[in-house]
Design a protein that fits this description.
Number of domains: 1
Helix content: 55-70%
Structural class: mainly alpha
Strand content: under 5%
Distance between the termini: 40 Å
Radius of gyration: 22 Å
Number of helices: 6
Shape: elongated
C-alpha cells in the first residue's frame, strides 16, 4: 500500500513539474493573466516549493517516524519526499529519505519475532540446544 502511495506521489510530482510548471505554453498563458484552475494549481505548487514546504514536511514526518514509528508518519514523509525530490526541494527531501530509511532499520521490540508473534519464553531442556 505504501509503495503504491509513493509511486502515485512520484507520478503526481512528475506531472506537476513537466506538465504544468515547465510547460511553456501554460506558463506563458498564466503569466499573461489567464485565470484558470490550471494556473491556480501551478501558482500554488510554485509557492510551496519556493518556501521548501515539501522538504520541511518530509523532514518533520521523517523525524516523527524515527522517534515514534507509525504508518501515517511514514506515508506523509514518503509522499512529501517524493514531491520534494522532483519539485526542487532536494536537500531537505533527501535528508528525509535517509531518515525514513534509517527508521526502517530499527531493531524489533523485545519479545517480538519477525513474524509479529510474541517470542516464546520457554527455556530449552538440558538436552535441547
Amino acid at each position: 500500500m505504501l509503495a503504491l502511495l509513493g509511486l502515485a506521489a512520484l507520478g503526481l510530482a512528475l506531472f506537476l513539474r513537466y506538465g504544468l510548471i515547465q510547460n511553456t505554453p501554460i506558463g506563458l498563458a498564466c503569466e499573461a493573466g489567464e485565470d484558470s484552475f490550471t494556473c491556480t494549481v501551478r501558482l500554488a505548487v510554485i509557492l510551496l516549493f519556493v518556501r521548501n514546504a515539501f522538504g520541511w514536511t518530509a523532514l518533520a514526518a521523517a523525524i516523527v517516524q524515527l522517534v515514534r514509528p507509525n504508518r501515517i508518519a511514514f506515508g506523509i514523509g514518503l509522499v512529501a519526499a517524493a514531491l520534494g525530490l522532483v519539485l526542487y526541494n532536494l536537500r531537505l527531501s533527501a535528508l528525509a529519505v535517509a531518515l525514513l530509511l534509517l527508521s526502517l532499520a530499527r531493531a524489533a521490540p523485545k519479545g517480538r519475532m519477525a513474524s509479529g508473534r510474541t517470542a516464546s519464553t520457554r527455556r530449552p531442556a538440558s538436552g535441547e540446544r
